[in-house]
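Budget justification aside, the reviewers requested a transparent look at the raw inputs and outputs of the sequence design task funded under Objective 1. We therefore reproduce one unedited record. The lines immediately below are the structure tokens for a 386-residue chain.
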């Protein structure tokens, strides 16, 4: 199925972005802000205070009904049936060959009537692919009659989603929600009420998750109140040093944190063990697409594995650059940037395991010139937890 050549989608904040001089770009079929002031300024604001990012382009898929837990357990690589209320797990969707179709977050909640439901957050670039995959695997009619009914809906157009990241994110959010954030653990979420007239007495789902390496939260709310709530966050955040941030800073932040990005470190040609994500694969119990292939892959040594690379100079390795050892190609760069925090050129890539030990000297071919670099442990940056 061809997912390209379609009209570009816009988030509920599109007009706000344009009116605040954002540099808009196409990202996975969405018109999104790359930056407002500068990538570096927005990066530092997130590391030191709060970054506010519109991530409404991410897909949100909802599952409910008596068969939802088993269905997701037979779709995802990670256990679902034993999740506690409010728990969130990072998982993968794999194809039958064990390749990564997407990396996702699955959260477990109850509605106002106490009925369980699950929310699956998927990458924008994979949303239509995963929706088609879900529909392909929904239980047949005969299963529905045995109490395995699954109600599936793609609620992406109905919701907006914001990332609130940085050491002052809790201070910004706490006055605006009706839950005690100090008690919300990482990879936990809750349905909350927004304590401001802008929310029009509506609520949303708040999770302590993120993609920057900093403490932070992700808030999903109705699209109809998104712009008003965003304005409140921006206004409340001014005294804390908060800034709206675009996708440019989001990318430099996640790379410093060693987090893989679909289409770069993750593809359908890469399996979880190569990517260092074997811990997400529960290979006993429920049978999901790709489990048998992953059992075989687990038994053999990967030809390439994901590593961190730090260049000695300031030239930036980019996706596709060849990594060499003593003049022999040993791998390829998948992402690279100049780190605003470390003031060094960094990259992630896949190289052969025998050269993957931290401290190994390598070279990176950057536009025809070999630049010295070393293999380093991931992540490049760890936040201060004191």
């Amino acid at each position: 199925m061809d997912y390209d050549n379609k009209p570009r989608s816009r988030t509920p904040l599109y007009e706000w972005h344009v009116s605040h001089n954002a540099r808009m770009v196409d990202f996975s079929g969405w018109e999104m802000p790359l930056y407002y002031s500068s990538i570096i300024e927005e990066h530092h604001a997130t590391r030191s205070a709060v970054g506010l990012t519109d991530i409404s382009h991410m897909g949100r898929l909802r599952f409910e009904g008596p068969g939802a837990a088993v269905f997701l357990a037979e779709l995802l690589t990670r256990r679902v049936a034993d999740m506690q209320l409010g728990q969130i797990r990072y998982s993968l969707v794999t194809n039958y060959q064990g390749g990564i179709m997407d990396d996702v977050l699955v959260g477990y909640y109850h509605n106002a009537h106490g009925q369980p439901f699950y929310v699956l957050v998927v990458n924008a670039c994979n949303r239509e692919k995963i929706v088609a995959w879900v529909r392909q695997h929904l239980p047949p009619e005969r299963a529905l009659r045995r109490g395995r009914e699954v109600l599936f809906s793609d609620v992406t157009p109905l919701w907006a989603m914001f990332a609130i990241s940085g050491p002052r994110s809790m201070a910004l959010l706490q006055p605006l929600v009706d839950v005690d954030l100090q008690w919300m653990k990482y990879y936990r979420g809750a349905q909350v009420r927004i304590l401001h007239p802008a929310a029009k007495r509506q609520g949303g789902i708040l999770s302590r998750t993120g993609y920057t390496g900093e403490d932070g939260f992700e808030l999903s709310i109705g699209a109809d109140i998104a712009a008003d709530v965003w304005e409140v966050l921006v206004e409340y955040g001014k005294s804390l040093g908060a800034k709206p941030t675009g996708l440019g800073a989001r990318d430099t932040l996640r790379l410093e944190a060693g987090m893989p990005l679909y289409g770069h470190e993750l593809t359908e040609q890469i399996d979880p063990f190569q990517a260092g994500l074997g811990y997400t694969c529960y290979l006993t119990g429920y049978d999901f697409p790709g489990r048998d292939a992953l059992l075989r892959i687990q038994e053999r040594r990967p030809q390439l594995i994901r590593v961190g690379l730090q260049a000695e100079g300031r030239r930036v390795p980019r996706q596709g650059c060849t990594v060499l050892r003593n003049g022999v190609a040993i791998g390829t760069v998948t992402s690279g940037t100049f780190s605003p925090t470390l003031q060094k050129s960094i990259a992630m890539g896949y190289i052969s395991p025998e050269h993957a030990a931290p401290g190994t000297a390598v070279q990176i071919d950057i536009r025809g010139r070999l630049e010295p670099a070393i293999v380093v442990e991931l992540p490049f940056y760890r936040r201060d937890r004191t």
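The first strand starts at residue 9 and ends at 10. Residues 226-237 form the longest helix (12 residues). Computational costs for records of this kind are itemized in the attached budget.
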